[in-house]
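Researcher: Good morning. I'm working through a list of sequences from a screen, and I'd like to move beyond sequence-only analysis. For each chain I'm collecting a predicted structure so we can compare shapes side by side. This is the next one on the list. No need for commentary yet; just the structure.
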Amino acid sequence: MIRRALLLAAAAASLGAAACGDDGGGPPPGAAGAAGAPACGAAPAAQAISRLGPLQCGPTLDFTPVNAYRGELAAANDREDAVAFINGNCSGTLVAAQSGPVVLTAGHCARLGDRVLVVFNFEDAPDGDELATDGTVIEQSDAPDYALVRLDALPAVTPTALTARPSDRLAVIQHPRGLRKVIAEGNYLQACPGGLFFYADLDTLVSSSGAGVLTREGRLFGVHTDGDCAEDGGGSNRGWTAADIARASPYLQAADVEACPDC
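Model: Good morning. Structure tokens for this chain:
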């Protein structure tokens, strides 16, 4: 109970402006509105850990509790058990790796060597026991923006597979503003050389940082890191692809990412 109280206190703090959330830097390089794919450009400089969240993508905030979701990305939502709430201010996903499962999150959520609190099944109408465990950040990078957490205790869930193949529609299962787990869906726009990719009409807020961006098949294409959406539907969110993260990572291997012949 004490550990959960500490987590919820951290989540409450993330409702304020200074949270390790996503989203708040300037627009992505060369980004256009949601009606057109953004132009690829140089990767943005690493952003500060404390950032303001943007408004939602469009006139409404479209989050659905994971256990109430009945949308078209059902295979993606089947992966919700692998999604975790990290330190009360970020999201992450337990992913499959040849060296053993690890939690993949955003690099601006933690520093190398940090001990972090990771909670699974923090959700409405949970379909399993809530598990709170500690973990150690074994890798961290600002560009690509990712971190890997080795857990002290693994949950009894199947890790999510990584992929280099996007789909036309994407889903992000997340803990926005420290809330219980929800899913949002939107449209894939474009991936750029160097690892950044963009997606539109997909709501994220502070504490969504580090959430996996999932394909129709329920595989993790990338990690959500930043957003620049507006209530008029303009702008786009962005993240880093799993393929480029694996290339930068000593722990993850190329074989951990499913091959994409057309990529």
